[in-house]
Every structure is written in C-alpha cells, then in structure tokens.
Amino acid sequence: MTASDSPLATATDEPTPWALPPRAVLAEVGSSDAGLTADQARARLAEVGPNRLAPPARTPWWRRVLSQFDDVLIYILLVSAVLKAIVGDWIDFTVILAVAVINAAIGLIQEGRAEKALDGIRSMLSVHAQVRRDGAWTQIDADDLVPGDVVRVRSGDRVPADLRLLEGVNLRVDESALTGESVPASKSSDPVPAGAGVGDRSSMLFSGTLVSAGTGTGVVVETGETTEIGRIQTLISEVDSLETPLSRTLDAFGKKLAVLILVMAVVMVVIGRVVHGFDTPELISAAIGFAVAAVPEGLPALVTITLALGVQQMARRRAITRRLPAVETLGSVTTICSDKTGTLTKNEMTARTVRTAAHQYAVTGIGYAPDGEVDLAGSPASLAEHPDLRLLAEVMTLCNDARIVRSTGEGGSGTDGPGAPDDGAGDAPGWRLVGEPTEGALRTLGLKAGFDPTGWRRIALVPFESENKYMATLTQDPDGGLHVLVKGAPDRVLDRCATQTGADGEPEPLDRDLWYEQIDAIGAQGLRVLAAARTGAAPGRTTLAPEDVDEGLELVGLVGIVDPPRPEAVEAIAQCQDAGITVKMITGDHSGTALAIAREMGIVPAAGAEDGAPAPQVLTGAELEAMSTEELRAVVEDVDVYARTSPEHKIRIVSALQSRGQVVAMTGDGVNDAPALTQADVGVAMGIKGTEATKEAAEVVLADDNFATIERAVEEGRRIYDNLRKSVLFLLPTNGAQSLVILVAVLLGWALPLQPVQVLWINMVTAVTLSLALANERAEPDIMSRAPRDAKASILTAAYLRRVLLVSVLIGGATMAVYFIERDQGMSVPEAQTTAVTMLALGQLAYLFNCRFLDRSSITFAVLRGNRAVWYSAGALVALQAVFVYAPFMHSWFGSAPIGLREWGITLGLSVVVFLLVEAAKAFGRRQASAARSR
After folding, report:
1. What is the pLDDT of residue 588?
2. Which of 12, 469, 616, 933 would you label with 805, given CA atoms 20 to 30 Å apart?
C-alpha cells in the first residue's frame, strides 16, 4: 500500500492519520476496536507484504572484483603485462601482474558499508507484537502485522509498526533515535495539525521507538517500508556515495599522468624507429620500460598503508575509522554539522537555575552526578538558612520516580546519594539514571541541595498524564505529618495555586505577574521550566485524586532544566573555528532551546543579529520545507542552527553545503541521522549512545561520544594528509628519474641503462620501505591554525611539482652518469646497470631526509630525530639492495650483478650532492615565499 493508495491520504497524497480522530482512522483503515479477523489479516498481508524492511540488491562479487581494476594507471600496468606475455618475458609479466592483483585485493577488503547500514536499521524492528485478532489479544510475529491491526504496547516495548494511538494511559515514548529529542515524548489520542513534523505528532507511535512509561493501544497505519523508519532506509539507499577529496585528486592526477605517459611513449617510439632505426622488439621493451618506470604502481599501496597507519593512530585518540579514505577526508573538512543531544551536550538533563518568590538560585555541576551545589549570590545556600529552597528540594525529590545510582565500575551501583551502598549495575565509576531524564535532573538537584529523603514515605500518587501535565503525591514526613506535593508544567501548576512560599518558608499572597515573568525569562534561556507546589493534608488520609489538587496549592518555585553542553566540546568548537572550520548545529529540538545552547557553545554570537541583513540565526524544519533548493543554497552557509529537522531536512542541508564547495562532516546518534551521515563526506556516529544503524552508516565512530574527539580526529586527518603529501612528493621523483633515464637514452639512441624489471624493482622497494617511513611523521606546529585545504586543489602545488622535476633530473642525471662511467671503465652491462639501480636507491634515501620537512631546512640535527621508522626503513632498503646486488637468484630474475666498494662509494657521494642541491632549492623557495608575503 503506497502513500497514494492509502485511505488516509489527503488532497496532497500524503497520509495524515495523526490529524484525524481515532474513530475516523479506524473507519479509514477498515478496522474496529476489536481489530481484524484472521482472514482479513491474511488477505491484507498478501496485499501489502510482511512488516519488514526489504534487503537491497547486492552487487555480484565478480563486478566488485572488476571495479578494483577501474583505474587508468592500473590499465597501463595491465597492458604492459600483456605485452610482456606476448613477447614471452614471463618473469616481468608475473611481477607486473602481481602488483595490480595486490592493489585489487586491498580495495576489496574495504567494501560493504551501505549494506551494513541497512541491516542495522532492520535490526531495530520489534520481533513480536501484542495484537487483537478475532476479538481476542494474542502475540504474533511483528512481520505479520498489517494496516488495521489493533496493537497494545506498554513500558519497555519496542513499537512494532507505525500506530495511530487510540487510547493511552501516562504514555511516554523515547523517540530520540528518530527525532533527536532528549526527553521522552508524551502521547495522546487527540489529533494534531496535518502539517505537524514527526516530533510533534503526539497521536502517533513510530516503528522502532521505545515505550518509556505507561500503556497504550493503537491501530496500525503503516508497515514495513512505508513506516517512518522504512522511509529512512529508502533515503539511505538513494544517497549517492561521494568521492573523497583525495580520491578526486589522485584520479585527476592519474589521468593527466596517463596521458603524459602515452604521449611520451609514442614520441619515444617514433624517434627511436625513424631517427635511430631501433628494431620493433627493442622498441616494445623500451616503451614498456618507460611505462613501468613512469607509472607509480606503489602509489595505491602507499596511500592505503598510510591511511591504515592513520586509522590506528586515530583509534588511540578514541575515533574508530571504518573506511580508510575517511581518515584523509577529515583533514579537509570545512564544515561540521553536529547533532546536539549527546554530542555537543551531555544527554543528561541538569537543573541550571532555581527561582522562588524571594530568591534566584544558581545550580553548579552538570549531568546526573551530584557534584555541585546550589548557590545564592555566589555562595552555597544551606537548607537550614533558606526554608524556601528546602521546601522546593522536598517537592522535587519526593514527587519523583527516578533514582540516581552510583556505579563502582566493578559490577556495583548504589542508591541515591553519596555514601550509599552498591547494588550492581555499571561499567565505570560514576552515576547513572534509572528513570526519566527530567526527573533525574530534579533528583540530582535535591542531592546537590543537601536534602535527605530518609524517613519520608509515599502514601498515594496521581501519576503524570499528558492531559494534566503534572504529578502529585501524598507523602508522610518523618514526624508523621502529611503533605500533598505537586510538580509539573508551570502553567498547569500555577492555575492551581492560591499562595506562594515566602523567604521564611511560610505562605504569602500569590503574585501571578511575577511568576509569568519568571517563566518567560527562564524559557527564553532555552531551559525547560517545571513548577513545584505543595499543601497540607488532614491526618489519617490515605488517598489522592486529581480533584484534590485542583485549587488551593502553595507555589514553592520554579526550576530551569537543560541538557548542558560538554565543557570540552565548547573548547573544541573554538579550536575548530581557529582552524577555519564552521560548526553548525542540526537538531530535532525546539528553536529556542537549540539557539540557547548554540550561544552558550559559541556556535553563534551571544548577542543578537548583527548589523545589516544577515540570514536568520535559526532555521526550522517548517521553514526549510517551504524553501526551494536554490533558496536553501543561498542561506545555508550563513545559518548555523537548524531546529525541528527531519531526516530529509538534514540531507538537504548537507547537500546544499556540498553544492557550495564545502567538505562536510555530519555527526549523529539516532537512526534519523543515518541518511545524512551517508550523504556527508564524512559520517561520524556516536559509539556509546548511537544506534547500530547510525554506526553502520558512518565512516567514523567516536568511542567516547564526544565532540572534542572530532576536533582531534580532524587534526589527525590533517597530519595524515601532510604525511601523504610528503610520501607522494618523495615517491614521484623515483618514477621521474627512471622514466627520464629511459626516455633520454632512446631519444639519443643510447643503450638502455635500466631493464623494465629493474625499474619495477626500484619502484616497489622504495615505495614499500622509504615512502612508508614518512607516514609516521609528527604533526607540523601550525597544523590547526591554518585554513582547511582546498578540496579541489592538487595534492602537489606548482612549487612541489617543480621540486619533483628538479629531483628527477638530479637523480636521473646521476644514474645515467654512473652507468656510462662504469661502462667506460670496462664494466659489463649487468654491473653497470646494477650500479645505476644502486644510485637510484641511495639517491632516494638521501632525498627522504629532504622530504621529512616539506619547506623547512633539513640541514639540522632534528632531521635525525623524532621518527625511528626512517632509520628502520633506511636499514631495510640497504639490506634489500644488498640482496639485489649479491644474491644469485636475483641475478637470474633481475639481471643484476655484484659490485665493489668503489661503486658503493661513488653512488653514496653523489647521493649527498643530491641532498645538498635539494636543500639549496628549498632555501630559494623559502626566500621567494617570504618576499611574496612581504609584498
């Protein structure tokens, strides 16, 4: 049953059961209070299908394998291998083909993210459901639910399908995974406007959400893929995977290099044939040698291993990377779109302010831990000296069903308050909530104020109802006196009050204007406001009814509650802004709450809008809905707070930012965040409080759910990119020098100083040893004080390309020089070629020390310290080159031959010359850059 087929569809073809009365919904879906018959359910199941999310079509394994070879540089290697096979050179064929196969195997290991994301969402669906069939309640598989089924839920249940609530008792549902709301939503069977967003549809229960309190009965209106969670799955599957900045850069570089290689190979073949009269087999061998020399076949392995080392380093900093390219992409992020609840904030509701008729108290500390105090004018306020505060603490602590439990980290947890015995619950030392977040905040407030509930006993209760919006208890104090205690929404409580508590704890006339003013003032700070009231009760009373608290109460005071910012996140946001990274808050909370938190965290200025006509500081989901794509793109970079957003809105925001050239990281913990995480350049999920669907959709998972970890991950990403640039800058002159040797030899009609298989040897041995050493370099001092790099910019700037060309000429020239010197001295071709290969190896080793510092001078003792991997790699290179020179089996495979100390001394001396000339070029570049800045 599609949206347009649904009997609940309006003129806009969108089903809106939340806007219809319960009886009308039952009639529209062809059901009744007695539910469906078994025959009706079977017929509908055959029509609409099972209540589950369909698995996506999987890409065949052979197509996944072939996709790994879809790279222009790999094409050149494969063609080279085929040509070697045609001329019967099977050793070269095997070595070249092995390189391509190894690269493909590495790529295959990294696949499968989207499929796991969808599997994670499917796991959120309920396994069983209580349903009314043939007039009787029974338990069935949730897969068998159909529109029209009447289902009942209670506290602790996972909602099995999208339900229109028919009736509910004290029903509250945790929809944080779907809407981002940090507080369970109260549910009512009353209709709401048709245009209400997901978070405001109080008459609906959504598939996959959790019932936190109460009971309810509802009729199924959507199942499977047409549920709200099903729509999110569709959004995920429809999101196109984006190339990372690095993949775009390397792809563009590869295509340009491939064209250059082909053009130069053609020129080389034409000149060799026409000018010098080389025969065809010799030209084919030379062309293959040039192609193999010019192709940096070690580059894919270099990139993969560098990123893998970065993944390990990021894991030590509590950021677990699920896809290798995300490591580098983090380093180029320009905008971080963050969910509020649990990422920027603690996701632990906290009392921030207390207002009585006489005083304004401030509450210190954050979270459920009773660390903090209640202050008056900057000094701790004792309950003995402030009766009004004592009475408020009594009401908020005793008219409360939550418990704050201390966890020892050794399998133990305790009851409320310091010094309480342990009872067995936690993972790590700290405090946790058993109950609802709002009541937990009030319970912690009582602990901070110093109220001891020992000796108090509850006699009767009026539970919280969404219709009444208050809770009341009949409570006996330690002396036997009875009290009626009430807490709830300030307007409902204030309407029931006739007096207020004075500074001395005694009742005085009620000043309604004062309280209305204070309610507005606290609410304007983005705080949730709760009121406390009380009255006496006659001795011997044992019952309490709603009509008993309709009037005559004494208003004790107000409490402002908020999900507080993480202190370390505030500092991390400031560091991101220093690094040129914009932080935007995207949340399902109300705009006032979102703006207040954003101001407190420094995301938006504390003052109001600036001069001129800036974009609004807050954009709501409803306003987003009314905007065209072009209108959103025009303001998306200027708006830093988005409130009451849906999954579709988050995708639109991320897409609009990307259309403006931004590299976007998106954080989230709920299933509603999964589509936007998939759309973003880097999806970041919360490891502790995040849903499985969100973790599977993300590239990075934060082990500590902390925004500050994102900032550290960005820093690590920048370090990795710097090191990758150093590695590429180091690797390319190897290819440049080798291809230059072959090109010059053919163009001038000389004998080839290097064989193709020798070229491949030096390429791989330097890539596997020396270039990997640079992946362990430490971060540059200014790494988080510079602007994000341009994602479209090449990995190598023009200045670095000139350096690559210079080093290629230096090492290539030295290689040709030693070859012809050795030939003039009467050395055999294998011995001269072996000396040339050794020159390439030692020249690259000298250049490695140039590359440790991109622009700074390497003529310093610091170049010898700080990275032990450099020395391990240097030792490995020398050892491997010694095997190449002296091992007999290498002589057979690669055409090498033993050389003496004289040849080692010549190559080592020329390598030192190469090092010094490169340093001279770096010094010249520094002077030019300094002169440009001074202008």
Report:
1. 79
2. 933
Q: Which residues of 753-777 are buried (b: 16+ CB within 10 A; e: fewer)?
A: bbbbbbbbbbbbbbbbbbbbbbbbb
Q: In the structure encoding, which two tokens stand for residue 910, read together? A: 């020329």
Coil, helix or strand at residue 448: helix
397's tokens: 């602590």
Label residue 549 by pLDDT band (50, 70, 90).
very high
388 assigned to active site: no
Q: Which of 71, 174, 339, 673 is catalytic?
A: 339
b/e sequence 810-820, b meaning 16+ C-beta within 10 Å: bbbbbbbebbe
Q: For residues 292 and 775, what is the distance between their CA atoms, to the nearest angstrom?
A: 25
**Which residue in the block uniquely carries the two structure tokens 């270039």?**
771
Reported pTM? 0.65
pLDDT on residue 789: 80
Q: Residue 544, SS3? A: coil
Measured torsion, CA atoms of residues 838, 840, 842, 846, in degrees rounded to the nearest 10: 170
Which tokens sit at 352? Answer: 């921030």
C-alpha separations of 181 from 178, 336, 573, 772, 856 in Å: 8, 20, 22, 46, 50
In this structure, what token pair is assigned to residue 183?
């507080």
Nearest to 503 by CA among 334, 675, 355, 320: 355
* CA gap 363, 613 in Å, rounded: 38
Mean pLDDT on 701-710: 83
Indicate the pLDDT class of residue 605, thresholds 50, 70 and 90.
confident
What DSSP element (H or E) covers 204?
Answer: strand 204-205
Backbone angles phi, psi at 219, to 5 degrees: -105, 135
Task: Give the list of residues 6+ apart from residue 144 with CB closer than 8 angstroms, or none.
Answer: 41, 45, 50, 51
Q: Find tokens 């992409």 and name the residue.
A: 329
Report whether pLDDT(713) > 60. Answer: yes
Torsion angle defined by CA atoms of residues 101, 104, 109 and 114, in that order, rounded to the nearest 10 degrees? -160
**Other C-beta atoms within 10 Å of 74: how many?**
19
Chain-centroid distance of CA 692 in Å reads: 13
The most confident of the ranges 251-260, 316-325, 471-480, 734-743 is: 471-480
How far, CA to CA in Å, does 474 sit from each of 398, 536, 559, 772? 10, 9, 21, 72
Contacts of 441 (CB under 8 A, 6+ apart): 348, 349, 350, 351, 368, 561
